[in-house]
Amino acid sequence: MIPWLGHELVFPPVRSALAEPDGLLAAGGDLSPARLLLGYSQGIFPWFSAGEPILWWSPSQRMVLFPPQLRVSRSLDKTLRNRHYRVTLDTAFRQVMEACAAPRAGAAGTWIIQPMVEAYCRLHQIGAAHSFEVWMDGELVGGLYGVALGRMFYGESMFSRRTDASKIAFVHMARHLQAQGVEMIDCQMHTPHLASLGATLIPRAEFIATLKNKTLEPQADSMWNYCFDHEPS
């Protein structure tokens, strides 16, 4: 059995998370900004589907990107150099979330249900959630969003409507945040897509120890100012 959360803003210790399913820690509670930020500060995030209670997770292995380990393949580097695109930050947060929530080929459904969209838009309104957007020909074609605490960034989801558009967003996000002093970006769960970009799995204890320091560090004034227009040479 896992604990059921009530109104009190508290989570069980992450060491009590289940081994199967890996990382399931608690259920219930709410998606208020205060609870979400408390969860992220402790390495806990919500992940559930429509019709389920809110489920809170802290997996035993955490997928993270250390920005210096960002991997850009030859084909992606060619795209970055030869495509005309624009990257912005925090100009279309809700649009990015809704695009991430849209049905995908081969997927049974989405965990980014409407309550999650509204919850993270509230975080965005208070400056705790951010989006990177990729535009081509004036159209939003890719992007990602996540939560920021201090100098920790917790990536949530990404989408792509044109080839490599989400990867363009990911590369610009990683390089910009590295320049702002972010040393680790949470990617949550392992996927081949993230692994191809240089993300790797680390033990939960190592992840928690690192984020405890990083969430307390002040953000640089320029952390959420970014715009990049690329014209092919």
Automatic annotation (TrEMBL):
Its main location: cytoplasm. InterPro entries: Acyl_CoA_acyltransferase (IPR016181), Leu/Phe-tRNA_Trfase (IPR004616), Leu/Phe-tRNA_Trfase_C (IPR042203), Leu/Phe-tRNA_Trfase_N (IPR042221). Gene3D superfamilies: Leucyl/phenylalanyl-tRNA-protein transferase, C-terminal domain, Leucyl/phenylalanyl-tRNA-protein transferase, N-terminal domain. GO terms for biological process: protein catabolic process. The keyword Transferase applies. NCBIfam families: aat. Functions in the N-end rule pathway of protein degradation where it conjugates Leu, Phe and, less efficiently, Met from aminoacyl-tRNAs to the N-termini of proteins containing an N-terminal arginine or lysine. It is an enzyme of class 2 (transferase). This is Leucyl/phenylalanyl-tRNA--protein transferase.
